[in-house]
Amino acid sequence: MSKKDKLKIGVVYSTDDSFEYQFDGPEEAKTLDPQKQRLHVCLDTKHRAGKKVTAIEGFIGTEEDLELLCKTLKTKVGTGGSAKDGIIIIQGDMVAKVKDILQSLNYKIK
Predict the structure, then answer these.
(1) All domains of the chain in start order, with CATH
(2) What predicted TM-score, i.e. pTM, was given to this entire model?
């Protein structure tokens, strides 16, 4: 166990010889199969100074899998983007391209 993990649970040092660290943190959600996922793809301009971005919402899974899907989309579309808080953002108006790519990856599109 690393020092950072110990600090996260609030215990820095204990003099009790029988003390064991216990983690009651939330379990990370497992990633659903692409056939079971229903993603919502839309064009968004909110809080972006008029710039258009393609937003993909509704992904259920781990952050690593979200980042992997984001990287795949950015590579195939050829633009930049990011993934955080369960939302993938692709720069530009790429709704049609993103929908085609996601359907080829067996995701259901809303």
Answers:
(1) 26-109 (3.30.780.10)
(2) 0.73
